[in-house]
Amino acid sequence: MQNPSPRRPISVLAVLPSQEPLIDSAMATLERRPPRIPLEEARTPPGLVLDPNFAAVPIGTGVPGEMSLEAVAPTQSRDFVVRAFVEVSDPSEVPVEQNGRPLFADPLIATFPTCPNSLAVGAVADVEARLRTAALAGRGLDGQGVAIAVLDTGINLAHLRSKLGTVPLFDAGNSWTPPRGTTAPGTYPVDHGTMCAFDALIAAPKATLLDFPILSTRVPGGAMTGSTLAVAVQAFAQLIAFWGVAFAPGGAPRYKALVVNNSWGVYHPSWDFPPGHPGRYIDNPRHPFQGLVSVLAGAGADILFAAGNCGADCPANQCQGRVTGTIMGANASPDVLTLAGCDVTDTRVGYSSQGPSIAGLYQQKPDLTAYTHFLGSDAFGPGVPDNGTSAACPVAAGCVAALRTKLTPHAVPPPNLFAQLTATARQVVPSPGWNGDYGYGIIDPDAAAAGFGV
């Protein structure tokens, strides 16, 4: 008789009703205090072990479409998301709920670089020429007064300074440190996040960087976990607190606009709950993270996600050979701008994930294509290209930040800005409209600016 598999803790996102310990934890996040949840006071369903270092996140009713800035205020929120562990023999055994409280997936997430050993196609100067950054600068569109939050592995300002020859604008006070993090904002090892920051400044050299190192360390839980969606949940809650107050009537915004770069996602369904589980992330519009994305977008933030690197011609190893329906989770949200990748000859890079998206979410993704696989930041070493849809996403984020220099989200909400970008994109394929390779075409910020008359 075969011995049963040993039980092990699986990380989940649990939805709990409002209660004082959770309100206090969420308020601590707003006030930059340690967000520890007092376990002896929180009412927790049996079988759930709370992570006391994960700040409770208010989610209103928890239903995307019903969530708003007012509803997710800690003192007004009906429900909160907490990170917890359940012990099971296999992930397929994770229950749908615990004592009537729903459980959602907390899948592994990863950055989207790939093919670092292949030769670069062009360099930063070629990207600048294709984006017509000189024309943007002539229009006064350089990102000044706009914040770009880089949700990634962390930024190394010293490296950026060495590559740019100038000190980039940086806001340490409004950057974020994940639970148990000890590294100061802007001093993380040179890696993927530094590449993203560099690429965002190509079109918006005077934008201000915010460091949100969601992939810098292992999340609380030790060896049992890696970087998971839970850290992104906390980061988005912090961004909502930072930007939502400023965007509300009577608020005093620190910046003209907020652009949020996300060059990460889920590579394969095996990272998530099994098909059919109502708490799954990758194809579930009702997952709490999707709701937080909608709230931040509704507050006027421009949110960009990379499409992924599971293109049919050259998928990354993590794709496990799966090349259809690979734009998943928030990367397929209708509230975000999703970026495919091409080189500076306008040729789609073979690893760029193609649409349509995974069944169950918005199908017409990617939205646009931006440049990648060029010599730029040297974040991965001299001569190694900035690559993957990881690079395409911040290139586009810089274009959005440049436009926001003169187009506030109050005057031009994110859906309107995104619609203009898709309408003015350069067509590559003969037939107009959306296609699964390029979306609506290659981003052309100068054409979008001309369309807006700025």
Automatic annotation (TrEMBL):
Keyword Protease: yes
UniProt cross-references to Gene3D superfamilies, sorted A to Z: Peptidase S8/S53 domain
Segments forming domain Peptidase S8/S53: 143-441
InterPro entries xref list: Peptidase_S8/S53_dom, Peptidase_S8/S53_dom_sf, Peptidase_S8_Asp-AS, Peptidase_S8_Ser-AS, Peptidase_S8_subtilisin-like, Peptidase_S8_subtilisin-rel
Any one Gene Ontology cellular component term annotated for this protein: extracellular space
Active-site annotation: D152 (charge relay system), H192 (charge relay system), S390 (charge relay system)
One Pfam family recorded for the sequence: Peptidase_S8
Keywords of the record: Hydrolase, Protease, Serine protease
GO BP field: proteolysis
Transmembrane segments: none
UniProt keyword Protease present: yes
An example Gene Ontology molecular-function term: serine-type endopeptidase activity
PANTHER family (alphabetical): CEREVISIN-RELATED, PEPTIDASE S8
Membership in a protein family: Belongs to the peptidase S8 family.
Protein name from the UniProt record: Peptidase S8/S53 domain-containing protein
Organism this protein belongs to: Rhodoplanes serenus
